[in-house]
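Dear colleagues,

As part of the handover before I leave the project, I'm documenting each prediction I ran so the next person doesn't have to rerun anything. This entry is a single chain, and its sequence is reproduced below.
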Amino acid sequence: MQRIASGDFLMGSNKYYPDERPVHSRHVAAFEIDVAPVTNLEFAAFVNTTGYVTIAERLLDPADYPHADIADLVPGALVFRPTNGPVDLRDWRQWWDWVPDACWKAPAGPGSSVNDRPQHPVVQIAFEDATNYAAWVGKRLPTEAEWEFAARGGLDGARFAWGDHPDTDTLRGNHWQGDFPYRNTGASGWFGTSPVGTFAPNPFGLVDMIGNVWEWTSDYYSFQHVPPSTTSPVDAGGRHSLLASAESGSSIPRRVLKGGSHLCAPEYCLRYRPAARSPQAEDTATTHIGFRCARSVTA
């Protein structure tokens, strides 16, 4: 882990997506954060020791999906499938498939494996999976503010983790190369996830804070930032925040994902930036969601 000293920074952005607004000053107490996302090898050790079964490996509860066909409520997860050519980027269902039996050890479904990818970040991880692993190692998930502060590496207010300009000359992270979602030329030779640490660390010594996989944080999602000074005690992690985070028509809370992934492309998802954020239902696992852990420290 890397210790991050306490400090203040400008959180959010007013230049890109609406839910990154408003930019505001945020204080972060000192904490520690994993240098890299949790890998397949590390998660396998957790499963082998505890017998833990991930969300993607469990039967779905009909009460959570009242309009679904009971035959579809089987273990599985979302898997990215490239399209055959250009498509309407407003319809994500064209490149995501629900695949029965897809899970962390078979991320693309039956026949796939992580045996040859021990140092790749583990994927197909739902929120509960990440929090259970974190508890097992005596840690927790980072808050959104901690995560963004760490990802910025001291470059307060910069658009990207490395400065204000895109990484067109020197690739700084694993994000989509080519034309999304049908032509992928590979990020430094990698298609999909890459081994942690393939790309250079940020000024805090942290790798893969940008790209590779989206990472869970502990924060409930809200459409825009609500600075702590204007947040009521109930809203700050209480029942109201939990219910308000859910997508319309759903009772499943959503948490904030940070960092972007190997599927982020400028024409579709310019979210491989520290300020970027994405809502994700707690029960969802995909081929581009992983996590890293954090830990509080004394002054």
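Helices lie at 40-50, 127-136, 144-152, 239-245. The radius of gyration is 18 Å.

All the best with the project,
I.
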